[in-house]
Amino acid sequence: MAVSDRELAELVQLRPTQTLDAFKGVKKLPLEEFFTSGHRTCQGCESSLVMKMMVKAAGPRTIVLGSTGCMYVANTTYYSTSWVVPWMHTQLGSSGSAGLGTAAGLKALMRKGKIKDEPINVIAFCGDGGGADMGLSAISATLTHPDYNVLILMYDNESYANTDIQLSGSTPYGANTTFSPPGKLKRIMHHRWKKNMAGMMAAGHPTCRYVATVCMSFPVYSMNAVRKALSIGGPTFIHSLDPCPKGWDYDPMLSHELGELAVTTGIWPLYEVEEGVFRLVGKTRDIADGRLKRLPVRDYLLKQGRFAHFTEDDIAYFQSKVDETWEKWLVPGVIPFKKQIEEDRPPA
Amino acid sequence: MTEALATPPQKQLAADKTSLITGSEAIAVACKLADVDVITAYPIRPYDTVMQYVAKLVSNGELDCEYIVAESEHSQFEIVKHASAVGARVFCGSSGVGWMYAFEALTVTPALRIPMVAMVGNRALDDPGAFGVEHNDALAVRDLGWQLVWVDSAQEALDTALIAYRVAEDRRIFLPCAISCDGAFLTHSQALVKVPSQEKVKAFLPRYDRGDLLLHPDNPITVAPQVNEDWLMEIRRQTAAAMDRSPAVIREAYADFERIFGRSYGNPFFEEYQTEDADVVLVGMGTLSNPVRVAIRQMRQEGKKVGFVRVRWFRPFAAEELAATLGRFKAVGVIDRDFSLGSPYRSGVLATEVRAAMYPAPNRPPIVGFICGLGGREVTVPAVREMTESVYLAAEGTTQPGTKWIGLRE
Amino acid sequence: MGRLFAVEIVYRGIFQKNLARNISRAIVLAAHHEGKPGISFGRYGDSPERNGIPAKSFAIVATDDVTLEEGMAKYEPKEVDITIVVDDTLCKGVESWAWYGLQPINRLTKPGGTLIVTSHENSETLISMAHRKETPYQLAIVKGTPSFSGLWVYKDDHSDVRILGTMAKVLPELFSLASVQQVIRAEWNDELKATSALRAYERATTVTVQPTQGNPEKPFEFQMPKWTEMREGIAIPAIPRGHQMKDPNTGEMGGYQPERNPTFKKFTTRTMRPVVDFDTCIKCTLCWLQCPDSVFDVTPDGLYDANMEACCGCGVCEAVCPVSNCITMVNETQFADNDSQWRMWKEDKEGYKGWLKEKIANRPERSHGFRFRGQYAEQVPDMLKIAREG
């Protein structure tokens, strides 16, 4: 017999969340910053822009947990911080646990009347190394807990950037990193394809109430994704792609442009899965609906030193793999299941 | 400094209830009495019996806490670490390699000044997998700022858990505390335990107040930023200072415990058994105290003046006091239920510590180390007698003090 | 006890990491050629490096092993014979990743030691940028555009070997030109680079900088507390919330200015700064919104004033600004202070127009590394021409 909503509510005692309505355009944004100047990130660091917009969207009644990575080491060097809201470090693989523990602590204390009962946002962030590699199991576990309001945000600069650019499970095919340098014998040292983290989280965790891919070159949508995640409550996950001038090797002034190119070349599809409902958004939707022509990946690749060793063949292969995600995947750019009918059609 | 001290109870408090429970269950009961807020579980023998009991208490509505089954020991300890940072009273635990899987989390907890209380159901480390007791798991954190205490009865387990919260959460300390219970002997055998009333516990244990270290929007702080060589020594020194303050706070807690619960443990740091007139003594930790006491009673009937010193608090280690006590005897035998391969004189961890403690003492009797009871092997009465013989020989100077493996097939 | 030589290379993190390493290694190898032992190392505290944030590497050389050990016994040299500055804007001083406070560029330069700077500027400009030093020191300029490239693709514009050639001239006791050239041939197998070193050697001249010359301001410092003064639990207070700004003319309050990290200001990371034409600004918010360093103060009249204490000069604001020439990145050497442009504009709009025009007019092209494949091939010839003809 199906459990009624009321029974479910008793079973899963979610605390109320803050109601964070969508920002209505860049001119209607709050002026206040909760992550401010004086961090030690690179010129043009998009990940620190993620931090800034993430807490601008979340507001002052927020606790942020940061796992080891650039946004830990570079943002907060002891006796010096850029955070206005409370912030605490957590271990490289612990973003999931840190978010869960903080939310559970607050919930217990409020429920038992030991502290003031109010909705406090809990955001735990991790890089791609901490999230897609080491912290995967803890994040996955947290996304299965229906009773805690916690947003896990993965800022993905596509390498272990803090330790000087080693490849991670999120590094794109062929990229030059200190662990995958092109050499005399092997031009392509890294031939793994990037993990599809957001898709994995959405497909594998029915309890997770909101999943989105974002990119700070699309600030209003990205900030609204954070607000939506925090308002919906329960465990939620956001995956942000962040151009990294250091690791990708490009002039910092191109940070914004490369973020746009990642989307318009179809390499980085923007989508959200809200209460199980899937939606392509922004320019990605325009591409899917044929309103916008997908740009060739070479426009994106040739602007980055990490792909400087690519031959025309490499670029063509990269293009073909991206095309495949658009033409053959069950859900474009998201679910890598091939469409049966196409695949099973016997050769003519 | 005094806010942590409980005020003496005004009226007569309700009497204790006696129940037949294991050491694990006794600690679960302590969690209930301490009104713990967040508990995380992950299965591994033998400690998980405590979480099985916690789960029952929660499902029956006897214990009101956020009870989270984690996906690994690492997460288990990280979750409660962060819950404690926002002001929640927490409980956690593990055994053997599970404790080692959480090692990173164990490492960061003291410097963050997180007063986590954990139970270690002592277990041998893999490989090979073995369920029986060895103390190497808990001892692995001995240098990191964890307070470590060993108990030898279910009653002591319950009482020590309450004391552990009182000490760990004292603002002067804010360091984690692990209570070691020997696998099987304590975790899986039931004994009659006096369960104190909630009122008494309230009078003894103030609420956890994280003060200026509370992570909350009303107290905006940045916790544990990256440091460089300009800072780490100062931070380590702060943690060391907290550990240095611990002995005095432990004494306070035991004194208050006796006053409120009417049960005395005498010297908090180590327990002496028939040492008053002893020629030689054995030193050990945990449940091996039981066969040792029996053997001592036998030997005393034969006129051998043997005593026993059971070390409770391994961290902080009461070096001066222990050295003064052991200096009274003709020879000392240290029984280790652990090993420290390649250590001085091939001893176990406890023997090495005792030797270090004795060095500055004016009177230094010979010390013999014993390795026995590994992997849960029984420490038999004849084994204790055999060890005592070696200690007597050392007292007479006829054997070279070193380390002997006892109960080994040779 | 023999003689100890210490050389520091002050460079822009990542952008000049490979350049600095090349120079540092070549110094040790060239000295080794003459039987002198040595070591080459980067300041560990500066790593992991960040784009543009000042970093250092050192080369320590001695006439014998025992003397070298004397030099190696220190975490980093307390004084150096030569300070190599591979980007002239570093002359304004450096706030390194692991440091607190601003360090004068010539802080470690020995009395009578030499500052070697890559620049298009003349000695007067560079001297005025550097902080005053109690004792005289020498300044040598290697004419050229500071060489910027990224982690993976190296821009081989001969900056490295031209500095080495200059060193052979200003400190012949360390190594001779011949030794440098031999190392160049061995390391790069490039005769053209060897020639560039020779040209630099022939051309190298120095001027003496007197204690009376240079920037008189006292750089900001940071006092480290005792362990008993630090909050326990590795906790530090958060940055306070920001506040409104005051209009200098009307006194009206409005807009928003964030509080900023007082112990790390980041402006010495800047090689270019945005200048804003407030008259053409359409208040689109993009510069303010897209700035990773929260640099833009929102003024009561709804404009965006780039705060020069916080700006690290990434250029994203110029890139996202939809109005042409509203935000322009200008070479940092053109500025002597960090004053508010908006205040300047409020106080004298006409004067500001002129100031703006002049700044934008003599705006030299600076490249912050890789923009597209083939870019360096376009840029290198100009530098080689300078290397050849001076």
Please outline the helices and strands.
The complex is a heterotrimer of chains A (348), B (410) and C (390).
Chain A: H1 5-11, H2 46-58, E1 62-67, H3 70-73, E2 87-90, H4 95-111, E3 121-127, H5 128-134, H6 136-142, E4 150-156, H7 197-204, E5 210-214, H8 219-232, E6 235-241, H9 245-249, H10 255-264, E7 271-274, E8 277-280, H11 282-288, H12 298-301, H13 312-327, E9 329-331, E10 335-338, H14 340-344
Chain B: E1 17-22, H1 23-33, E2 38-41, H2 48-59, E3 66-69, H3 73-85, E4 90-94, H4 96-101, H5 103-108, E5 117-122, H6 136-139, E6 147-150, H7 154-168, E7 177-182, E8 190-195, H8 198-204, E9 221-223, H9 232-261, E10 270-273, E11 280-284, H10 289-301, E12 306-311, E13 313-315, H11 319-326, E14 331-336, H12 349-358, E15 367-371, H13 381-396, E16 403-405
Parallel strand pairs in B: 2-3, 2-4, 4-5, 5-7, 6-7, 11-12, 11-14, 14-15, 15-16
Antiparallel strand pairs in B: 1-8, 6-13, 10-12
Helix pairs in contact in B: 1-2, 1-7, 7-9, 8-9, 10-13, 11-12
Chain C: E1 4-12, H1 17-33, E2 38-42, E3 54-62, H2 65-72, E4 80-85, E5 109-119, H3 123-129, E6 137-143, H4 159-170, H5 177-188, H6 191-203, E7 206-209, E8 235-237, E9 243-246, E10 253-257, E11 272-276, H7 286-290, E12 296-298, E13 304-306, H8 316-320, E14 327-331, H9 341-347, H10 349-361, H11 375-389
Parallel strand pairs in C: 1-4, 4-5, 5-6
Antiparallel strand pairs in C: 1-3, 2-3, 6-7, 9-10, 11-14, 12-13
Helix pairs in contact in C: 1-4, 1-5, 4-5, 4-6, 5-6, 6-11, 9-10
Commentary on this structure:
The complex is a heterotrimer of chains A (348), B (410) and C (390). Chain A is globular, with a radius of gyration of 20 Å. The longest helix of chain A is centred in the N-terminal third of the chain and has 17 residues, at 95-111. Chain A has an 8-stranded mixed beta sheet, sandwiched between helices. Chain A has 348 residues and is of the alpha/beta class. Helices cover 36% and strands 15% of the residues of chain A. Chain B folds into 2 domains: 17-261, Rossmann fold; 270-405, Rossmann fold (3-Layer(aba) Sandwich), CATH 3.40.50. In chain B, strand 15 (367-371), helix 13 and strand 16 form a beta-alpha-beta unit. The longest helix of chain B is centred in the middle third of the chain and has 30 residues, at 232-261. Chain C folds into 2 domains: 4-216, Pyruvate-ferredoxin Oxidoreductase, domain 3 (3-Layer(aba) Sandwich), CATH 3.40.920; 236-361, Alpha-Beta Plaits. Chain C contains 11 helices and 14 strands. The mean pLDDT of chain C is 95. Classes of the chains: A alpha/beta (348), B alpha/beta (410), C alpha/beta (390). Chains in contact: A-B, A-C, B-C. At the B-C interface, strand 9 and helix 9 of B face strand 8 of C. Strand 2 (87-90) of chain A pairs parallel with strand 9 of chain B, so a sheet runs across the interface.
